[in-house]
Amino acid sequence: GATIGIMGGGQLGRMLAVAAAQLGYRCHIYAPEAESIAADVSARFTSADWDDRAALTAFADDCAVITYEFENVPVEPLTAIPAEKLAPGTRALEVAQDRLLEKRFITELGGRPAPYAPVDSAADMAEAIRSIGAPGILKTRRDGYDGKGQWRIASADLAEELDLPETPLIYEGLVRFAGEFSVILARRADGEICFWESAQNTHVKGILAKSVLPAGPTIAEQVPVARKLAAEAAEKLGYVGVLTLEFFATDDGPVFNEMAPRVHNSGHWSTEGAVTSQFENHIRAICGLPLGDTATVGSSVEMRNLIGTSGEEALALLEDPQAHLHFYGKLDARPGRKMGHVTRIDA
Ligand code: ATP
Ligand code: MG
Ligand code: MG
């Protein structure tokens, strides 16, 4: 079969490569690291910098289509790759790489983010606190994940004492939410769209701890509005593949948090919990194949992340015969690192 290129070498790439292999494709991983847990299960691996244009050109020559498992791939060097090979396109990356652009984009579509203000100086910060108030969260505009690059601001006087990092920032008001959920969709180039059921997501210290289905009535009520926004975002971007939008369910309806132009941790339950997983439908969408049914299998599903968990601890989870263990094969179990996940389905 044809070769699919994946930019980024982490667990999302690994799970995409497994889904691709099942459909008869070979994967070629492109990542700057010397070793990659996605490359471990793929046919080829290019270890090169994101801006190595010669390496990108050779990678593109080898691949029928190229996708991403990491949204912070620098966009400019991607001009070395024929645009028609990239799925999704670079516009989706540009928007999703910058919290300010992403909030403006969603606002233009009629969506509602938390109150926010860009912060590039101490004066901006003071003004942001004046207009938005505290508590709030100061975030780097780019490159954050798992709650990294975020500072909770409990009160206005604490904000004054803050040493601002030398990078573009954004200040957001703290949203009081009843729950968190994400809309995960897959879109084909012809505009066909499908959605997975939205789980209730629980974060601990900024890292996703678990996703549970069914999500409960508060979230379920807000999903239709959130889906409409997500579908409009996908359409506006001419999006191909799986797209994720994270939301807070509040008393005034869904508040947009952020988007990811890729498969998402809150959709990992779909490997066993849906007729077709997010990984498989991403591969199907970028290869122009029909999308599979996204219906949830069973009456309840729980996905728990294994954060900092050792291989030994993970294997012990198999004592539960209903547990589906996904262990990513990372070499060291640093605290706070996503080492795997475990899914449990109740018929
Ligand atoms: P991810 O790993 O999902 O990409 P991230 O580092 O980009 O995470 P966010 O999604 O911005 O981080 O924030 C992580 C979590 O922190 C959120 O899921 C939510 O629980 C909490 N959080 C972030 N922003 C806000 C906010 N404005 N109000 C309330 N809670 C927030
Ligand atoms: Mg994020
Ligand atoms: Mg997030």
From TrEMBL:
<dbReference type="GO" id="GO:0034028">
    <property type="term" value="F:5-(carboxyamino)imidazole ribonucleotide synthase activity"/>
</dbReference>
<dbReference type="InterPro" id="IPR040686">
    <property type="entry name" value="PurK_C"/>
</dbReference>
<dbReference type="GO" id="GO:0005524">
    <property type="term" value="F:ATP binding"/>
</dbReference>
<feature type="domain" description="ATP-grasp">
    <location>
        <begin position="103"/>
        <end position="287"/>
    </location>
</feature>
<dbReference type="InterPro" id="IPR016185">
    <property type="entry name" value="PreATP-grasp_dom_sf"/>
</dbReference>
<comment type="subunit">
    <text>Homodimer.</text>
</comment>
<feature type="binding site">
    <location>
        <position position="203"/>
    </location>
    <ligand>
        <name>ATP</name>
    </ligand>
</feature>
<dbReference type="Pfam" id="PF22660">
    <property type="entry name" value="RS_preATP-grasp-like"/>
</dbReference>
<feature type="binding site">
    <location>
        <position position="99"/>
    </location>
    <ligand>
        <name>ATP</name>
    </ligand>
</feature>
<feature type="binding site">
    <location>
        <position position="180"/>
    </location>
    <ligand>
        <name>ATP</name>
    </ligand>
</feature>
<feature type="binding site">
    <location>
        <begin position="257"/>
        <end position="258"/>
    </location>
    <ligand>
        <name>ATP</name>
    </ligand>
</feature>
<dbReference type="InterPro" id="IPR011761">
    <property type="entry name" value="ATP-grasp"/>
</dbReference>
<dbReference type="InterPro" id="IPR013815">
    <property type="entry name" value="ATP_grasp_subdomain_1"/>
</dbReference>
<comment type="pathway">
    <text>Purine metabolism; IMP biosynthesis via de novo pathway; 5-amino-1-(5-phospho-D-ribosyl)imidazole-4-carboxylate from 5-amino-1-(5-phospho-D-ribosyl)imidazole (N5-CAIR route): step 1/2.</text>
</comment>
<comment type="similarity">
    <text>Belongs to the PurK/PurT family.</text>
</comment>
<dbReference type="InterPro" id="IPR005875">
    <property type="entry name" value="PurK"/>
</dbReference>
<dbReference type="GO" id="GO:0004638">
    <property type="term" value="F:phosphoribosylaminoimidazole carboxylase activity"/>
</dbReference>
<dbReference type="Pfam" id="PF02222">
    <property type="entry name" value="ATP-grasp"/>
</dbReference>
<comment type="function">
    <text>Catalyzes the ATP-dependent conversion of 5-aminoimidazole ribonucleotide (AIR) and HCO(3)(-) to N5-carboxyaminoimidazole ribonucleotide (N5-CAIR).</text>
</comment>
<protein>
    <recommendedName>
        <fullName>N5-carboxyaminoimidazole ribonucleotide synthase</fullName>
        <ecNumber>6.3.4.18</ecNumber>
    </recommendedName>
</protein>
<dbReference type="InterPro" id="IPR054350">
    <property type="entry name" value="PurT/PurK_preATP-grasp"/>
</dbReference>
<dbReference type="InterPro" id="IPR011054">
    <property type="entry name" value="Rudment_hybrid_motif"/>
</dbReference>
<dbReference type="InterPro" id="IPR003135">
    <property type="entry name" value="ATP-grasp_carboxylate-amine"/>
</dbReference>
<keyword id="KW-0067">ATP-binding</keyword>
<feature type="binding site">
    <location>
        <position position="139"/>
    </location>
    <ligand>
        <name>ATP</name>
    </ligand>
</feature>
<comment type="function">
    <text>Catalyzes the ATP-dependent conversion of 5-aminoimidazole ribonucleotide (AIR) and HCO(3)- to N5-carboxyaminoimidazole ribonucleotide (N5-CAIR).</text>
</comment>
<feature type="binding site">
    <location>
        <begin position="144"/>
        <end position="150"/>
    </location>
    <ligand>
        <name>ATP</name>
    </ligand>
</feature>
<keyword id="KW-0547">Nucleotide-binding</keyword>
<dbReference type="GO" id="GO:0005829">
    <property type="term" value="C:cytosol"/>
</dbReference>
<feature type="binding site">
    <location>
        <begin position="172"/>
        <end position="175"/>
    </location>
    <ligand>
        <name>ATP</name>
    </ligand>
</feature>
<dbReference type="GO" id="GO:0046872">
    <property type="term" value="F:metal ion binding"/>
</dbReference>
<dbReference type="Pfam" id="PF17769">
    <property type="entry name" value="PurK_C"/>
</dbReference>
<keyword id="KW-0436">Ligase</keyword>
<dbReference type="GO" id="GO:0006189">
    <property type="term" value="P:'de novo' IMP biosynthetic process"/>
</dbReference>
<keyword id="KW-0658">Purine biosynthesis</keyword>
